[in-house]
Structure formats: C-alpha cells, structure tokens
C-alpha cells in the first residue's frame, strides 16, 4: 500500500528506522519481513534452523545498515531481500564442500564389442533425431543438457523469454522421445 508521499508502508518504516532509530517501526519491519524472508530462504534450500538464523542476521543488518538505505533507489523490500540473498549466498559458500568418495569400478566392466556397436548405433539414432528437430529446439536442448546451463541463463544469453526456452526444450524432448521410442535398453 502506497502512502501519500509515494512510499510504501515498509519503506516508510525503514526510513523511520534510518532517521530516528524508531524501534516500533523496526518491530513492524521485522513482523512484516521475518516470515517472508524465512519462506524465501526455506524455498532456497536452507534447513536445520539456518533459515531462522539468517532471518535474525538479516534483520540485525537492516538495523545497523539502515543509514545506507535510499528510498529513491529501491523499495525497502528490494533492499532487505537483497541483504537476505547475499547472506544466503555467504552461508552456502562457507559450508565445506562435499567430497565424494571415488568408487572403484569392478574389473571386467569394460564394454565388449556388441555394447560398443549398440552405443554407436544409439548415438547415430540420436544425431539423426536431433537433425530432424527445429534448430532453435536443438540449440536450447544442447545448452540445457550438454552445456548444463540453467533455463534462466539460456534465457539471459539468448535474450528470449524464459517461457519460450522452456517450451522449446519441452517440445524438443517430446519429439526426441517419439523419434527414439523404438530404442529399448537391454
């Protein structure tokens, strides 16, 4: 809801915190954004109580950094969510990397001649099926599955809407499934 001066209520609350260190305004900010931030962080994959910790950390940062807030550059929500996103990224970066144990392949697991021929034949069928797709579908599928690009990144690099990218991939995969339905694993 926008007030007569053109700012939303949360933005006015943050201005009150910035200008007067208004504790009541901060409490309203916390009550308003706390549950929303927690939901965002839970959707982002934070579990085991760390979402609540990040919310506390974000709101503490809001209190301490309120002097940096400029309502003419961003709404309070955008400013606060950016702090939360950055905290979440920092938390993920600080976590130790998962070291996967290398599994040894049992001896005698080398593909034999019939397996090699079958794989080569399947690869030929796949190339032929890809050649029958529309070029824009092939491009989207290659970026998504061979270059391991997220759909949003494909959208950003091609300049196409995200929905278009998703549709091209979905339609291309459906066509590939149809084209390759006769190939059955043995």
From TrEMBL:
Which residues does UniProt call coiled coil? Answer: none
The chain positions of domain RNA polymerase sigma-70 region read 29-95
The record places domain RNA polymerase sigma factor 70 region 4 type at: 126-176
UniProt keyword DNA-binding present: yes
| Keywords tagged on the record | DNA-binding, Sigma factor, Transcription, Transcription regulation
Give the molecular function GO annotations.
Answer: DNA binding; sigma factor activity
Q: Which GO terms describe its biological process?
A: DNA-templated transcription initiation
Q: Which NCBIfam families does the record associate with it? A: sigma70-ECF
Family indicated by similarity: Belongs to the sigma-70 factor family. ECF subfamily.
Q: What is this protein called?
A: RNA polymerase sigma factor
